[in-house]
Amino acid sequence: MATANDTRPASISLETLDAALASGVISLDQRERLLAMEAGPESVATAGGDEENLRLIGGGNDLFVTVGTVLLTAGFYFVLNTMLVGRPLWIAAALAAFAWLVAEVVTRQHRMKLSSTVLALVFAASGTVLLVLLVQAILDIQLPDSLWELIAMRGPVSQAGYAVLGGIILAAILYFWRFRVPILAGVVAIAATLLAFFQTALFLYDGVTQGTVAPPSLQDGPELVRAALYMPLVCGLIIFATAVALDLHDRERRTIWSDCAFWLHVVSAPMLVHPLFIMATGQDIAFGRIEPGADATVMLAILIIGFVYVALAIDRRSLLVPTLAYFGTLGIYYLVNSAANTTGVPPFALILLVVGALVILFGAGWQRIRRLIIGSTLPTSVLSKLPPFRI
Protein backbone atom coordinates (compact mmCIF):
# COMPACT_ATOMS: atom_id res chain seq x y z
CA MET A 1 0.00 0.00 0.00
CA ALA A 2 1.42 3.40 -1.04
CA THR A 3 2.06 5.95 1.72
CA ALA A 4 2.30 9.73 1.69
CA ASN A 5 6.09 9.52 1.52
CA ASP A 6 6.07 6.97 -1.29
CA THR A 7 7.36 8.74 -4.41
CA ARG A 8 6.79 5.84 -6.77
CA PRO A 9 4.34 6.64 -9.59
CA ALA A 10 1.01 4.86 -9.46
CA SER A 11 0.49 2.22 -12.11
CA ILE A 12 -2.79 2.09 -14.04
CA SER A 13 -4.07 -1.43 -14.60
CA LEU A 14 -5.13 -2.71 -17.99
CA GLU A 15 -8.66 -3.17 -16.67
CA THR A 16 -8.84 0.51 -15.77
CA LEU A 17 -7.55 1.53 -19.21
CA ASP A 18 -10.04 -0.77 -20.94
CA ALA A 19 -12.88 0.61 -18.82
CA ALA A 20 -11.81 4.17 -19.64
CA LEU A 21 -11.69 3.27 -23.34
CA ALA A 22 -15.14 1.66 -23.23
CA SER A 23 -16.67 4.68 -21.46
CA GLY A 24 -15.11 7.16 -23.87
CA VAL A 25 -12.79 8.80 -21.35
CA ILE A 26 -9.75 8.04 -23.53
CA SER A 27 -9.31 7.05 -27.15
CA LEU A 28 -7.63 3.90 -28.46
CA ASP A 29 -4.61 5.96 -29.49
CA GLN A 30 -4.35 7.43 -25.99
CA ARG A 31 -4.59 3.96 -24.46
CA GLU A 32 -1.70 2.73 -26.59
CA ARG A 33 0.37 5.81 -25.72
CA LEU A 34 -0.17 5.23 -21.99
CA LEU A 35 0.87 1.60 -22.34
CA ALA A 36 3.96 2.65 -24.31
CA MET A 37 4.88 5.21 -21.64
CA GLU A 38 4.53 2.59 -18.90
CA ALA A 39 6.73 0.20 -20.88
CA GLY A 40 9.64 2.61 -20.73
CA PRO A 41 11.33 5.47 -22.56
CA GLU A 42 12.45 3.25 -25.43
CA SER A 43 8.82 2.65 -26.34
CA VAL A 44 7.95 6.31 -26.66
CA ALA A 45 10.97 7.50 -28.57
CA THR A 46 10.13 10.55 -30.58
CA ALA A 47 11.64 12.02 -33.67
CA GLY A 48 14.95 12.55 -31.88
CA GLY A 49 16.00 8.92 -32.27
CA ASP A 50 17.81 7.57 -35.28
CA GLU A 51 16.26 4.11 -35.29
CA GLU A 52 12.98 2.99 -36.81
CA ASN A 53 10.89 2.59 -33.67
CA LEU A 54 9.82 -1.03 -33.87
CA ARG A 55 8.87 -2.76 -30.63
CA LEU A 56 9.58 -6.44 -31.31
CA ILE A 57 11.39 -7.26 -28.07
CA GLY A 58 10.98 -5.78 -24.63
CA GLY A 59 14.43 -6.53 -23.24
CA GLY A 60 16.35 -9.38 -21.69
CA ASN A 61 13.46 -10.57 -19.56
CA ASP A 62 11.24 -10.73 -22.64
CA LEU A 63 13.84 -12.90 -24.39
CA PHE A 64 14.06 -15.08 -21.27
CA VAL A 65 10.29 -15.52 -21.15
CA THR A 66 10.23 -16.27 -24.89
CA VAL A 67 12.61 -19.20 -24.39
CA GLY A 68 10.35 -20.47 -21.63
CA THR A 69 7.30 -20.03 -23.83
CA VAL A 70 8.85 -22.04 -26.66
CA LEU A 71 9.91 -24.82 -24.28
CA LEU A 72 6.51 -24.88 -22.57
CA THR A 73 4.66 -24.99 -25.88
CA ALA A 74 6.89 -27.74 -27.26
CA GLY A 75 6.48 -29.79 -24.09
CA PHE A 76 2.70 -29.34 -24.12
CA TYR A 77 2.58 -30.41 -27.78
CA PHE A 78 4.53 -33.62 -27.12
CA VAL A 79 2.31 -34.41 -24.14
CA LEU A 80 -0.77 -33.95 -26.34
CA ASN A 81 0.74 -36.20 -29.01
CA THR A 82 1.20 -38.89 -26.39
CA MET A 83 -2.21 -38.58 -24.75
CA LEU A 84 -4.29 -37.88 -27.87
CA VAL A 85 -2.81 -40.27 -30.39
CA GLY A 86 -4.63 -40.09 -33.72
CA ARG A 87 -6.71 -37.06 -32.73
CA PRO A 88 -5.10 -34.12 -34.54
CA LEU A 89 -8.26 -32.01 -34.30
CA TRP A 90 -8.24 -32.17 -30.49
CA ILE A 91 -4.50 -31.49 -30.42
CA ALA A 92 -4.91 -28.36 -32.56
CA ALA A 93 -7.83 -27.17 -30.42
CA ALA A 94 -5.85 -27.72 -27.22
CA LEU A 95 -2.83 -25.84 -28.61
CA ALA A 96 -4.98 -22.89 -29.65
CA ALA A 97 -6.61 -22.75 -26.21
CA PHE A 98 -3.20 -23.13 -24.57
CA ALA A 99 -1.76 -20.20 -26.55
CA TRP A 100 -4.74 -18.03 -25.61
CA LEU A 101 -4.50 -18.88 -21.89
CA VAL A 102 -0.75 -18.27 -21.70
CA ALA A 103 -1.23 -14.98 -23.57
CA GLU A 104 -3.64 -13.88 -20.83
CA VAL A 105 -0.61 -13.77 -18.53
CA VAL A 106 2.32 -13.06 -20.85
CA THR A 107 0.59 -10.57 -23.16
CA ARG A 108 -2.41 -9.23 -21.34
CA GLN A 109 -0.82 -8.67 -17.94
CA HIS A 110 2.90 -8.27 -18.61
CA ARG A 111 3.00 -7.01 -22.24
CA MET A 112 5.94 -9.24 -23.24
CA LYS A 113 6.46 -8.34 -26.87
CA LEU A 114 8.57 -11.12 -28.38
CA SER A 115 6.90 -13.92 -26.44
CA SER A 116 3.51 -12.42 -27.33
CA THR A 117 4.47 -12.64 -31.00
CA VAL A 118 5.45 -16.30 -30.59
CA LEU A 119 2.15 -17.09 -28.84
CA ALA A 120 0.18 -15.28 -31.54
CA LEU A 121 1.89 -17.37 -34.23
CA VAL A 122 1.20 -20.56 -32.27
CA PHE A 123 -2.44 -19.57 -32.01
CA ALA A 124 -2.65 -18.72 -35.72
CA ALA A 125 -0.96 -21.96 -36.82
CA SER A 126 -2.95 -24.24 -34.50
CA GLY A 127 -6.15 -22.35 -35.32
CA THR A 128 -5.53 -22.85 -39.04
CA VAL A 129 -4.99 -26.59 -38.59
CA LEU A 130 -8.09 -26.76 -36.40
CA LEU A 131 -10.23 -25.00 -39.00
CA VAL A 132 -8.95 -27.22 -41.83
CA LEU A 133 -9.63 -30.43 -39.90
CA LEU A 134 -12.99 -29.19 -38.61
CA VAL A 135 -14.23 -28.12 -42.03
CA GLN A 136 -12.96 -31.35 -43.57
CA ALA A 137 -14.87 -33.38 -40.99
CA ILE A 138 -18.09 -31.36 -41.25
CA LEU A 139 -18.19 -31.32 -45.06
CA ASP A 140 -16.82 -34.86 -45.29
CA ILE A 141 -14.19 -33.87 -47.84
CA GLN A 142 -11.75 -36.57 -48.89
CA LEU A 143 -8.52 -35.44 -50.49
CA PRO A 144 -8.62 -36.52 -54.17
CA ASP A 145 -5.89 -38.40 -55.97
CA SER A 146 -5.57 -35.93 -58.84
CA LEU A 147 -6.02 -32.25 -59.61
CA TRP A 148 -8.95 -32.94 -61.92
CA GLU A 149 -10.86 -34.69 -59.15
CA LEU A 150 -10.18 -31.71 -56.90
CA ILE A 151 -11.48 -29.30 -59.54
CA ALA A 152 -14.62 -31.41 -59.94
CA MET A 153 -15.40 -30.87 -56.24
CA ARG A 154 -16.29 -27.22 -56.84
CA GLY A 155 -19.13 -27.02 -54.31
CA PRO A 156 -17.48 -28.55 -51.23
CA VAL A 157 -14.12 -26.98 -52.03
CA SER A 158 -15.60 -23.48 -52.28
CA GLN A 159 -17.42 -23.88 -48.96
CA ALA A 160 -14.27 -25.21 -47.32
CA GLY A 161 -12.10 -22.41 -48.71
CA TYR A 162 -14.43 -19.67 -47.52
CA ALA A 163 -14.85 -21.29 -44.12
CA VAL A 164 -11.13 -21.83 -43.50
CA LEU A 165 -9.80 -18.51 -44.80
CA GLY A 166 -12.70 -16.54 -43.38
CA GLY A 167 -12.28 -18.32 -40.05
CA ILE A 168 -8.56 -17.49 -39.97
CA ILE A 169 -9.31 -13.80 -40.52
CA LEU A 170 -12.02 -13.73 -37.84
CA ALA A 171 -9.85 -15.62 -35.33
CA ALA A 172 -6.88 -13.30 -35.95
CA ILE A 173 -9.08 -10.22 -35.54
CA LEU A 174 -10.55 -11.59 -32.31
CA TYR A 175 -7.08 -12.39 -30.93
CA PHE A 176 -5.83 -8.95 -31.93
CA TRP A 177 -8.84 -7.29 -30.30
CA ARG A 178 -8.01 -9.08 -27.06
CA PHE A 179 -4.21 -8.91 -27.00
CA ARG A 180 -3.11 -6.24 -29.52
CA VAL A 181 -0.29 -8.29 -31.11
CA PRO A 182 0.90 -6.49 -34.28
CA ILE A 183 2.04 -9.52 -36.28
CA LEU A 184 -1.60 -10.58 -36.64
CA ALA A 185 -2.04 -7.72 -39.09
CA GLY A 186 0.27 -9.65 -41.40
CA VAL A 187 -1.67 -12.87 -40.78
CA VAL A 188 -4.92 -11.15 -41.74
CA ALA A 189 -3.30 -9.68 -44.86
CA ILE A 190 -1.98 -13.07 -46.00
CA ALA A 191 -5.31 -14.80 -45.38
CA ALA A 192 -7.21 -12.06 -47.22
CA THR A 193 -4.80 -12.36 -50.16
CA LEU A 194 -5.29 -16.12 -50.31
CA LEU A 195 -9.04 -15.55 -50.18
CA ALA A 196 -8.76 -13.20 -53.18
CA PHE A 197 -6.73 -15.82 -55.08
CA PHE A 198 -9.28 -18.47 -54.17
CA GLN A 199 -12.19 -16.36 -55.38
CA THR A 200 -10.38 -15.62 -58.64
CA ALA A 201 -9.73 -19.34 -59.20
CA LEU A 202 -13.41 -20.11 -58.62
CA PHE A 203 -14.40 -17.34 -61.03
CA LEU A 204 -12.16 -18.77 -63.76
CA TYR A 205 -13.41 -22.29 -63.07
CA ASP A 206 -17.02 -21.20 -63.42
CA GLY A 207 -16.15 -19.35 -66.63
CA VAL A 208 -14.51 -22.44 -68.14
CA THR A 209 -17.34 -24.77 -67.15
CA GLN A 210 -19.98 -22.35 -68.47
CA GLY A 211 -18.10 -21.79 -71.73
CA THR A 212 -17.55 -18.05 -71.23
CA VAL A 213 -13.80 -18.50 -70.72
CA ALA A 214 -11.65 -20.61 -73.03
CA PRO A 215 -9.56 -23.23 -71.20
CA PRO A 216 -5.85 -22.37 -71.47
CA SER A 217 -3.50 -24.58 -73.43
CA LEU A 218 0.09 -25.42 -72.63
CA GLN A 219 1.27 -22.73 -75.05
CA ASP A 220 -0.72 -20.16 -73.10
CA GLY A 221 1.22 -20.92 -69.94
CA PRO A 222 3.58 -17.89 -69.97
CA GLU A 223 0.77 -15.46 -70.77
CA LEU A 224 -1.42 -17.04 -68.10
CA VAL A 225 1.34 -16.61 -65.52
CA ARG A 226 1.78 -12.95 -66.47
CA ALA A 227 -1.97 -12.35 -66.26
CA ALA A 228 -2.04 -14.04 -62.86
CA LEU A 229 0.48 -11.48 -61.61
CA TYR A 230 -2.20 -8.80 -61.51
CA MET A 231 -3.85 -10.43 -58.51
CA PRO A 232 -0.81 -10.31 -56.15
CA LEU A 233 -0.01 -6.84 -57.48
CA VAL A 234 -3.47 -5.50 -56.66
CA CYS A 235 -3.46 -7.20 -53.26
CA GLY A 236 0.03 -5.90 -52.58
CA LEU A 237 -1.02 -2.35 -53.47
CA ILE A 238 -4.04 -2.55 -51.14
CA ILE A 239 -1.95 -3.90 -48.26
CA PHE A 240 0.78 -1.32 -48.92
CA ALA A 241 -1.78 1.50 -48.99
CA THR A 242 -3.22 0.29 -45.69
CA ALA A 243 0.27 0.22 -44.15
CA VAL A 244 1.01 3.75 -45.38
CA ALA A 245 -2.31 4.96 -43.98
CA LEU A 246 -1.37 3.53 -40.58
CA ASP A 247 2.05 5.15 -40.82
CA LEU A 248 0.53 8.53 -41.61
CA HIS A 249 -1.96 8.08 -38.76
CA ASP A 250 0.96 7.52 -36.37
CA ARG A 251 3.76 9.69 -37.77
CA GLU A 252 5.78 9.58 -34.55
CA ARG A 253 5.59 5.77 -34.41
CA ARG A 254 4.35 5.75 -30.81
CA THR A 255 1.47 3.27 -30.93
CA ILE A 256 0.77 -0.29 -31.94
CA TRP A 257 -0.62 0.79 -35.32
CA SER A 258 2.89 1.64 -36.45
CA ASP A 259 3.99 -1.91 -35.61
CA CYS A 260 1.01 -3.28 -37.55
CA ALA A 261 2.14 -1.16 -40.51
CA PHE A 262 5.59 -2.77 -40.31
CA TRP A 263 4.18 -6.26 -40.77
CA LEU A 264 1.90 -5.08 -43.57
CA HIS A 265 4.95 -3.65 -45.36
CA VAL A 266 6.74 -6.98 -44.93
CA VAL A 267 3.79 -8.82 -46.49
CA SER A 268 3.18 -6.33 -49.32
CA ALA A 269 6.79 -5.94 -50.48
CA PRO A 270 7.17 -9.36 -52.18
CA MET A 271 3.72 -8.99 -53.80
CA LEU A 272 4.82 -5.70 -55.33
CA VAL A 273 8.40 -6.50 -56.25
CA HIS A 274 7.90 -9.77 -58.13
CA PRO A 275 5.00 -8.75 -60.42
CA LEU A 276 6.50 -5.34 -61.18
CA PHE A 277 9.85 -6.90 -62.02
CA ILE A 278 8.34 -9.29 -64.58
CA MET A 279 5.94 -6.69 -66.01
CA ALA A 280 8.62 -4.04 -66.34
CA THR A 281 11.40 -6.22 -67.76
CA GLY A 282 9.28 -8.70 -69.73
CA GLN A 283 11.15 -11.58 -68.11
CA ASP A 284 9.59 -14.85 -67.04
CA ILE A 285 11.25 -16.87 -64.30
CA ALA A 286 8.74 -19.73 -64.57
CA PHE A 287 9.07 -20.52 -68.29
CA GLY A 288 12.41 -19.04 -69.27
CA ARG A 289 15.69 -17.49 -68.18
CA ILE A 290 15.95 -13.94 -66.96
CA GLU A 291 18.35 -12.16 -69.27
CA PRO A 292 17.42 -8.47 -69.34
CA GLY A 293 18.36 -6.59 -72.47
CA ALA A 294 19.09 -2.87 -72.66
CA ASP A 295 15.44 -1.81 -72.20
CA ALA A 296 14.90 -4.28 -69.39
CA THR A 297 18.04 -3.09 -67.64
CA VAL A 298 16.81 0.50 -67.70
CA MET A 299 13.40 -0.53 -66.36
CA LEU A 300 15.07 -2.61 -63.66
CA ALA A 301 17.18 0.34 -62.56
CA ILE A 302 14.08 2.58 -62.49
CA LEU A 303 12.26 0.02 -60.35
CA ILE A 304 15.10 -0.20 -57.85
CA ILE A 305 15.33 3.60 -57.62
CA GLY A 306 11.56 3.85 -57.24
CA PHE A 307 11.40 1.38 -54.37
CA VAL A 308 14.35 3.02 -52.63
CA TYR A 309 12.71 6.44 -52.94
CA VAL A 310 9.35 5.22 -51.58
CA ALA A 311 11.07 3.43 -48.68
CA LEU A 312 12.96 6.60 -47.81
CA ALA A 313 9.82 8.73 -48.08
CA ILE A 314 7.78 6.62 -45.68
CA ASP A 315 10.84 5.84 -43.52
CA ARG A 316 10.45 2.09 -43.78
CA ARG A 317 13.47 -0.19 -44.14
CA SER A 318 11.05 -3.12 -44.07
CA LEU A 319 9.97 -2.22 -47.61
CA LEU A 320 13.55 -1.98 -48.84
CA VAL A 321 14.91 -5.25 -47.44
CA PRO A 322 12.76 -7.62 -49.60
CA THR A 323 13.40 -5.34 -52.57
CA LEU A 324 17.18 -5.58 -52.26
CA ALA A 325 16.98 -9.30 -51.58
CA TYR A 326 14.85 -9.97 -54.67
CA PHE A 327 16.68 -7.69 -57.07
CA GLY A 328 19.99 -8.84 -55.64
CA THR A 329 19.31 -12.48 -56.41
CA LEU A 330 17.56 -11.98 -59.76
CA GLY A 331 18.14 -8.59 -61.31
CA ILE A 332 21.61 -7.57 -60.16
CA TYR A 333 22.91 -11.00 -61.12
CA TYR A 334 22.53 -10.26 -64.81
CA LEU A 335 23.53 -6.64 -64.44
CA VAL A 336 26.96 -7.70 -63.16
CA ASN A 337 27.23 -10.92 -65.15
CA SER A 338 29.14 -9.27 -67.97
CA ALA A 339 31.65 -7.84 -65.52
CA ALA A 340 32.09 -11.25 -63.98
CA ASN A 341 32.80 -12.79 -67.37
CA THR A 342 35.56 -10.28 -68.10
CA THR A 343 37.19 -10.27 -64.65
CA GLY A 344 36.71 -13.91 -63.73
CA VAL A 345 35.07 -12.98 -60.42
CA PRO A 346 32.12 -15.28 -59.62
CA PRO A 347 28.76 -13.52 -60.15
CA PHE A 348 27.56 -14.64 -56.72
CA ALA A 349 30.46 -12.81 -55.09
CA LEU A 350 29.58 -9.59 -56.93
CA ILE A 351 25.95 -9.96 -55.83
CA LEU A 352 27.04 -10.19 -52.21
CA LEU A 353 29.30 -7.15 -52.62
CA VAL A 354 26.63 -4.97 -54.24
CA VAL A 355 23.75 -5.90 -51.93
CA GLY A 356 25.95 -5.87 -48.83
CA ALA A 357 27.29 -2.43 -49.68
CA LEU A 358 23.78 -1.07 -50.21
CA VAL A 359 22.54 -2.53 -46.93
CA ILE A 360 25.45 -1.06 -44.96
CA LEU A 361 25.14 2.28 -46.76
CA PHE A 362 21.44 2.64 -46.01
CA GLY A 363 21.77 1.13 -42.55
CA ALA A 364 24.54 3.46 -41.41
CA GLY A 365 23.36 6.64 -43.09
CA TRP A 366 19.62 6.09 -43.46
CA GLN A 367 18.49 9.33 -41.88
CA ARG A 368 21.15 11.44 -43.63
CA ILE A 369 20.26 9.92 -46.99
CA ARG A 370 16.56 10.35 -46.26
CA ARG A 371 16.96 14.00 -45.28
CA LEU A 372 19.14 14.69 -48.32
CA ILE A 373 16.90 13.00 -50.91
CA ILE A 374 13.39 13.32 -49.52
CA GLY A 375 13.87 16.66 -47.81
CA SER A 376 15.15 18.28 -50.98
CA THR A 377 12.67 16.77 -53.47
CA LEU A 378 9.28 16.98 -51.75
CA PRO A 379 7.34 20.13 -50.84
CA THR A 380 6.80 21.09 -47.22
CA SER A 381 3.09 20.33 -47.44
CA VAL A 382 3.91 16.69 -48.25
CA LEU A 383 6.77 16.41 -45.76
CA SER A 384 4.48 17.54 -42.95
CA LYS A 385 2.34 14.41 -43.51
CA LEU A 386 5.27 11.98 -43.69
CA PRO A 387 7.19 10.56 -40.73
CA PRO A 388 9.49 13.32 -39.38
CA PHE A 389 13.23 13.37 -39.97
CA ARG A 390 15.30 11.98 -37.12
CA ILE A 391 18.63 13.33 -36.07
UniProtKB/TrEMBL annotation:
Native source species: Tianweitania populi
UniProtKB keywords: Membrane, Transmembrane, Transmembrane helix
TM segment ranges: 63-83, 89-106, 118-139, 159-177, 184-205, 225-248, 260-281, 293-312, 319-336, 348-366
Name of the molecule in the record: DUF2157 domain-containing protein
